Structure formats: structure tokens, C-alpha cells
Automatic annotation (TrEMBL):
InterPro entries: Na/Glc_symporter_sf (IPR038377), Na/solute_symporter (IPR001734), Sodium:Solute_Symporter (IPR050277). Belongs to the sodium:solute symporter (SSF) (TC 2.A.21) family. This is Na+/proline symporter. It catalyses: L-proline(in) + Na(+)(in) = L-proline(out) + Na(+)(out).
Length: 550
């Protein structure tokens, strides 16, 4: 990449900006630092997080560095509908978590992780499947965010990529290590306020530096018919639908989201999720418009790298003051997600690994805190090393996405249907993951009967996604009817067509197969589970010396 195409700060200026940001967040956390931290406060703020902090933290966590670049890439690639597909579906997924989240919280009001709930429902094997997927996902997220920091620092300053990675890792760890989740939530609030203020300034500044709305009107001639279409089929099939499916899996399977669900006060869950939905959508769609502006002005990304779009636009059209604000915007977004990943990892190791499996319901709170902080240090080191090596994480990311997709129905069904067994849960996840891999990597030729089979399975998966949404808001009957109708309609359109869209086919297959296996094995069992026992098995760690075991 030709660095001269980007505006560059001096080494002193970049270090000053980073010191101001991370130094400020560290000083902010000193306001809540206690001489002796509580284990429950360290993991979930004693389940007493207020509406404002909860909504801000949910929004900031959902917005990570990749959101900016991916939203801009979507706008540049798919035109007018691109940013809408990226931002709108991500925002709606926050809203769609709400009805299921209420059920999770009702079953286990004192839980710290979703894995604790699943452990009480099914036992260790199902819990560890969920915990393992979360560990992999959070490590990958850490790596991506530290990589974004390294890339940004290397582009906008003489400092090296590795220097940017290390500074971000040390900075995030420094303000998160002592107070854990409480520090993450408090800094999320400050970071989100800064991100919103900066986004409100930068987006119109780029627009008017280009020459105003009139220039964009003239740029419409540069768009293809698909890019100019608000309801572009290509955008829906290649961007909107796969993202809709993937984000639902992320929402149900990721600890950073469920951790906030268990932390916020129960009576604040609904307004928290609604506010986070609106906040995420507004910021991400707005930033995606920068990619659309680049497309409509005929800008070519340097070296063909789409991740250069936003830095390139900012460097070309804004003053150094706005470039500095953009720098803080990206650093704030990646830090808010990275600290959430550290807190998620520490909670998983503290509660799922140590509390439920090593200590077997008799954990030592002091030792738990030590383990949580040690986990943060080790996770930061791993994230920094992987980011510094610039490894290709696509394969690992594909597997994590598949695992989360295969987990969605078994997790939700386990919390509503008393016939789901541990065997049904584990078998469903494994079968869904295997069939996803067959479709995603085309291990079989997707033609003839094989292609037809996978399209029908994917249609069932699509019906499951739509049915779960209806079920969450309108009840079981509506969910079943909408799900069946959705699967039938999708099958009508999918046969002979969906096999050409591998990512969407594979993602929906994971949903369809895991659902079929889970339902079939559950119906074969005469077992009936008593949901009231979950709340008795999952409790706080500082209020009791011994937690009941299953």
C-alpha cells in the first residue's frame, strides 16, 4: 500500500491521542475501583445494571471496528441498499434477542453466563459446547479488533502494525483488569457517547467536503441498476439474508450479549434492548454511507482493499482535526468490543470451567477473581500474538459461525420445551456443524438429488429462523404456523436456485439439520424436565459458600 495516499500524523501526535484515550478510560475506571472486588460484580454488576449504562454498553459492544469497514464495504459493493442491509438486520437482531432473553433471565435470574443455565438444564457436555464456541468466538474477536488497531496506527502514523496491536492490547487490559465487567460497562458508556458525537460530525463533514448532495445526485450515473435499486436482489441474497442468519446465531450464542442480559435489572431489559437497537442501526447505517459516497464519486480503494475505503475518504476530504476524531472513533469502537470479549472470557472460565466443572458447585470467590483476571491477561497475550502474526482466521471464523448457527434452536428449545434432552442437544449441534461443513466447503457436488436435499434442509432452516422470531414475540402457535409456511414458501423458491449461494445455503442448513435432529431425538424420549430446578441450581457466588449441584 502506498502510505502517501493517506494523511499521516507524527509519532508524537498518535501516541498522544492513544495516551489520552486509554489514559482517560483508565482514570475513569478508578472511580469505581473497590479495594476488594465482588465476584458477582466483576462478572455481571450484581445483576443490577441500570437502563442507561445497559443500553449504551449493549450498543457499544455490538459496534466493533469491523462494523465500520464492513458497512462501508457493503455500501461500496451493493450501493444504496448495502448499508441498510448491514445496519438494519444487525439492529433488529438486538431487538429479537429480547423475548428469548426474558425467558433466560426468568429461568436463571442469578446466572452469569448462558452456559450456567445450560449446565443446569442438560449437564456438562452441552454447557462445554456452548462455552467452547464462546471462547473461540471471543478470541477471534479480540484478534480482529487488535488487528484493526494495528492497521489504523500503521496507516495514519509512522508506527508499525505491531506497535498498534500491542498498544491496544495493553490499553484495553489496563482499564479492564481490576473491575472487570463494571469497568467495561462504564467505559462503554463514555466510548459510545464519543462515537455518536464523532459520527454525527464526520458523516456530514465528508458529504459537504465532497460538494454536498448535488455531487451525489450526479454520481447516481456511476451506479449499476442493482446498486441503484433499494430492493436489490443481489444485495439481499449476498449480504442481507446471510447477515440476518449469522447475526441471530451470534446473538444467541455469544457471551458478550448474554452477559449484559444477566447484568441489567430485570425491569429494564425491554427498554435497554429497544434503545440499543435504535442506537446501533443509526450509527452503523450512517457510517456505511461513507462507502456509498465513495462509490458515487468514483473512488477506487487503494490496492483494491475495501478496508482502505473509510481511511481513504477521511484522509482525502477532511482536515487533520476530523482525521484525529476518526482515529478516536475507531479506537473507541474496537476497545469497547475488546474489553467486552475479555469480560466474557473471564466469566466463562470463572463460572463455566471453574465454578461448575472444577470446583463442582463449591467455588472459592477469591480464587474465582484470580482466575478471571489471569484469563484476561492470557487472552490479551493470545489476541496480541495472533494479531501480530496477521493470521488468516477465515476458516476458524467459519467454524465458529457454523457452531453458533447449530446451537440456536437447541438452546432456545431447551429453555421452553421440557422434552429436550442432553443427547438431543449435543447430537443436534454436531449434526448441524457437520452438514454445514459439507455445504460450505462443497464436500459433495451440489447438483441433482444432493443439491435438492440441501436446498430442502436449508428451507427448513429458513422456516426455523422466521418461526423463532414469530414465536418470540407472538407465542408458540404463531411460531409454528409462520415457521411451516415460511419453510414451504422458501422451498418453492429455493429448489434449483439456492445451491448457487453457498454461504446462505450452508448457514440455513445448520439451522435446519440441528432443528430436525433435536426435535426427533427429543420426541423419542419420555423424559420431562422441571424448569423450576434451574433457578435453584444457579446462584450468586458471593452470597453463598456452596452452590447446589445438579
Amino acid at each position: 500500500m502506498n502510505d502517501s495516499d493517506f494523511y499521516q500524523f507524527s509519532t508524537f501526535t498518535v501516541l498522544a491521542l492513544l495516551l489520552a484515550f486509554y489514559g482517560g478510560t483508565y482514570l475513569l475506571t478508578l472511580l469505581i475501583k473497590n479495594k476488594k472486588e465482588s465476584t458477582d460484580a466483576f462478572m455481571v454488576s450484581n445483576h443490577n445494571l441500570g437502563f442507561g449504562l445497559g443500553a449504551a454498553s449493549m450498543t457499544a459492544t455490538w459496534i466493533w471496528a469491523a462494523s465500520f469497514y464492513a458497512a462501508a464495504t457493503s455500501g461500496y459493493t451493493y450501493g444504496i441498499s448495502g448499508p441498510l442491509h448491514y445496519g438494519l438486520w444487525g439492529a433488529l437482531m438486538i431487538l429479537f434477542i429480547y423475548p428469548f432473553g426474558r425467558r433466560f433471565r426468568k429461568l436463571a435470574p442469578n446466572a452469569h453466563t448462558l452456559g450456567e443455565l445450560i449446565h443446569a438444564r442438560h449437564g456438562a457436555s452441552s454447557q462445554l459446547i456452548l462455552a467452547s464456541s464462546n471462547v473461540l468466538g471471543s478470541i477471534i474477536s479480540l484478534m480482529v479488533n487488535f488487528t484493526a488497531s494495528g492497521a489504523l496506527v500503521s496507516v495514519l502514523s509512522p508506527l508499525s502494525f505491531q506497535a498498534g496491536v500491542i498498544i491496544a492490547g495493553v490499553g484495553v487490559l489496563a482499564y479492564t483488569l481490576w473491575s472487570g465487567f463494571r469497568a467495561s460497562v462504564l467505559t462503554d458508556f463514555a466510548q459510545l457517547m464519543a462515537m455518536m458525537a464523532i459520527a454525527i460530525l464526520i458523516i456530514p463533514a465528508v458529504l459537504f467536503s465532497l460538494g454536498g448532495p448535488g455531487v451525489l445526485s450526479e454520481g447516481m450515473a456511476l451506479l449499476t441498476p442493482e446498486q441503484a435499486d433499494l430492493f436489490s436482489t443481489e444485495a439481499i441474497l449476498n449480504q442481507g439474508a446471510p447477515f440476518f442468519v449469522a447475526v441471530l446465531a451470534y446473538a444467541i450464542g455469544n457471551q458478550t450479549i448474554s452477559q449484559r442480559l444477566f447484568a441489567v435489572r430485570e425491569d429494564h431489559i425491554k427498554p435497554t434492548f429497544i434503545t440499543a437497537t435504535i442506537g446501533y442501526g443509526a450509527i452503523v447505517i450512517g457510517l456505511g454511507m461513507i462507502g456509498l459516497m465513495a462509490l458515487m464519486t468514483g473512488l477506487e480503494p487503494i490496492d483494491g482493499d475495501m478496508n482502505n475505503l473509510i481511511p481513504q475518504m477521511v484522509s482525502l476530504y477532511l482536515s487533520p482535526v476530523f482525521i484525529a476524531l476518526f482515529f478516536i472513533l475507531v479506537i473507541g469502537s474496537l476497545s469497547s468490543t475488546a474489553d467486552s470479549d475479555l469480560c466474557a472470557l473471564s466469566a466463562i472460565v470463572m463460572a463455566d470451567v471453574y465454578g461448575k466443572n472444577i470446583a463442582r458447585g463449591r467455588p472459592d470467590p477469591t480464587r474465582m477473581l484470580f482466575i478471571g483476571r489471569l484469563t484476561m491477561i492470557v487472552a490479551t497475550l493470545i489476541g496480541v500474538v495472533l494479531a501480530s502474526l496477521s493470521m488468516d482466521i477465515l476458516i476458524m471464523l467459519v467454524f465458529v459461525g457454523a457452531l453458533w448457527g447449530a446451537i440456536v434452536f437447541p438452546v432456545i428449545a431447551s429453555c421452553f420445551w421440557n422434552r429436550v434432552t442432553n443427547a438431543a442437544f449435543t447430537s443436534a449441534v454436531i449434526a448441524g456443524l457437520l452438514m454445514f461443513c459439507v455445504a460450505r466447503f462443497e464436500l459433495l457436488n451440489m447438483a441433482g438429488v444432493t443439491g435438492l436435499l440441501f436446498e430442502l434442509l436449508a428451507s427448513i432452516g429458513g422456516g426455523v429462523v422466521i418461526g423463532l422470531m414469530a414465536f418470540g414475540f407472538f407465542g408458540r402457535r404463531a411460531g409454528v404456523i409462520v415457521g411451516i409456511l415460511g419453510a414451504v414458501v422458501l422451498a418453492w423458491f429455493a429448489v434449483g436456485f439456492l445451491r448457487d449461494y453457498t454461504i446462505l445455503l450452508a448457514s440455513l442448513t445448520a439451522y435446519g439439520v440441528s432443528t430436525l435432529v433435536c426435535v426427533t431425538i427429543s420426541l423419542m424420549s419420555s423424559h420431562r424436565f422441571e424448569f423450576a430446578s434451574i433457578g435453584q441450581s444457579v446462584g450468586n457466588y458471593d452470597d453463598t459458600t456452596e452452590l447446589p449441584t445438579k
